[in-house]
Amino acid sequence: MKQVADGVFALELEMNLSGRSRVIHPVLIAGAEGATLVDAGLPGQLDDLRREVAAAGADFGDIRRVVLTHQDIDHIGALPEVVGALEGDVEVLAHEDDRPYIEGERTPIKLSPERLARMVSSLPGDERRRMESLLASPPSARLTRTLSDGEVLPVHGGIRVIHTPGHTPGHISLFLEGARVLISGDELNVEDGELVGPAEGATPDMERALASLAKLVPCDVEYVICYHGGVYGPGARERISALAEGR
Questions:
Q1: What is the per-residue pLDDT across 38-67, written as a single tens digit (0 to 9) for each?
Q2: CB 49 within 8 A of CB 171
Q3: What is the DSSP annotation of the chain?
Q4: I need a surface site. Which of 9, 68, 73, 154 has the fewest CB within 10 A?
C-alpha cells in the first residue's frame, strides 16, 4: 500500500495470470462521506483487499461505493465478494458501454474462446485447468447506476469521470480534482519507472485508446495511479501531454 495524497491510497495485490506474477493496484479513497474503492482485483482476493484497506488505516465496512474502470477480470474479479461482504450496502458504478459485460449479459470481450485458449496454452496441466475454470465463468454483479463522460461525483473533493475507450468500450479514467491525482485504469501504465500508454497486446482498439490520451491532457495531474505499474509523479501532466502527442 502506498499513500499518494491525503486519503488516497494505491493498494497492492499479487496477481498471477498466464503464469506471470505481478502487482495490481486498486485504489482506496477515504473520506468523511465514506470510502470509495476503485476496481476490485481478481476472484478470491477479498481477504487481500481487506488487508490492504486496513493497512491504509481504514475500515472495510466504511466502503460506500465501488467504481470500476472497466470490465476485465482482474478489475471486477472480487466484486461479488466485496458486495457480499458489505451486505449489499454499497453503490457499484461503471460506464454504460461496459455494463452488459460486468452484469454478465455478455461474455467479456477479452475472454473469447480463442483468446482464452491462447492465454492458457503454455501453462502446465494443473495451472491450465485452474485458469480455464477461472476464466470460463467470469464474475458478474449488478451496477447501481452507470457513469457518463464528464460527470463529477460529488465526493472526495470531486471525482471527474473521463471516458477513455479503446482498452474496452467503456473504459474510464478518474481525476481526483482536489488531490490532483489521476486514476488511469489501464489507459496508462508504468514500465521501468516511466509512464507509458495502453498495452497493445491487451487493447483491442489501440487506435481509439491512443486517441483517448488527449482527453487526459487538460487535467492538472500531479500523480497518476496505474493499475499495472503503480504510481508515477510528481509532474505527471507533462508526460501525459507528451504521450498524447506521440512522443
A1: 999 999 999 999 999 999 999 999 999 999
A2: no
A3: -EEEETTEEE--EEEEETTEEEEE--EEE--TT-EEEE---STT-HHHHHHHHHHTT--GGGEEEEE-S---HHHHTTHHHHHHHTTT-SEEEEEGGGHHHHTTSS--TT--HHHHHHHHTTS-HHHHHHHHHHHHS------SEEE-TT-EESSTT-EEEEE-TTSSTT-EEEEETTTTEEEEETSSEEETTEEE---GGG-S-HHHHHHHGGGGTTS--SEEEETBTEEE-SSHHHHHHHHHTT-
A4: 154
Q: How far is CA 84 from the centre of its chain?
A: 20
- C-alpha distances (whole Å) from 143 to each of 8, 74, 103, 159, 234 are 24, 17, 7, 18, 34
Q: What are phi and psi of 102, to 5 degrees?
A: -70, -35
- CA 241 – CA 162 distance, rounded (Å): 16
The whole-angstrom separation of Cα 121 and Cα 18 is 9
Q: Which triple of cell numbers denotes residue 71?
A: 470490465
Residue 126: count of CB within 10 angstroms of its CB:
8
pLDDT of residue 218: 98
List the grid coordinates of 127. Answer: 495451472
**Which grid coordinates belong to 173?**
479514467
DSSP string covering 150-168: T-EESSTT-EEEEE-TTSS
Identity of the residue numbered 60 = F
Lowest mean pLDDT among 7-21, 97-111, 118-132: 118-132
